[in-house]
Design a protein that fits this description.
The protein has a single domain, classed as Luciferase-like domain (TIM Barrel), CATH 3.20.20.30. 47% of the residues lie in helices and 15% in strands. The chain is built from 13 helices and 11 strands.
Amino acid sequence: MTDQTGYGLWTTVRLLPRDPAERGAVAKAVEDMGFASLWIGGSPGDLELHEALLAGSERLRVASGIVEIWSNPAEVVAAAHQRVTSRYPGRFLLGLGAGHARMVEARGQRYDRPVAKLRSYLDELDAAQPPVPSGERILAALGPKVLQLSADRAAGAHPYCTNPAHTAEARALMGPSAQLLPDQKVYFGTDPTTARAVARKGLAIYLGLPNYVNNFRRMGFDDDDFADGGSDRILDTLVAWGSDEAVAARLKEHLDAGATEVLAQVLTAEDGAPGTPPLDAWRHAAEVLFAS
């Protein structure tokens, strides 16, 4: 399959094998499916995982989605970035984000003024030797302050758990030149009960994290939508499910709203075993998206 534009794939560290060669084989499979990029949620700052993915593929772009800035010192990340990009120029994008208070404070750190922390972290990357160029980094962004920071101090933004309306608002705020790469959770299945059960499981953690809940409120949701695992309304908004055609149409809405590329996060009815990526589900997603 030839490379396509417009769609990448988002997955988590948990689903990737530990062996570098096996990781490389996964990247090659994703590349052969036609996805333009592979994004890794919960990325470690040493970037060794991303290096293995790049080594196993030829054209695939790999991104951290994201490296959390509180637990990954800027000088370590900058050195890792230099190592990876010198070996694979033009194929790695450093995704960065402020993470969440619950996780940061569980490590004994103080989660205070996350936007200011993100700005100072970017200052440190600018001052590193060599620096991390702004065009090679992207920020996890939901609200207007970080969306604007993404346009001013990075290549663009990586919104997570949003919808096409948020994409349109982000594009209007950031201007035409910044990259805008939203994640979109998808489930291929037309049974509402099953689809919403899968969506509820996939969204459970985010309905309890203030950063996301605040953004959901900006999107028009309220306490009733967050109760009991999520209302049908919020589940159906945040997870594109249904027929192949319906899922593909939702992702295209992001592109029509101004996304540079949409990152499909494929949910499945069965939890994948650690180290076992759902290649068949990813392959189906690729067939659907690239036929549309």
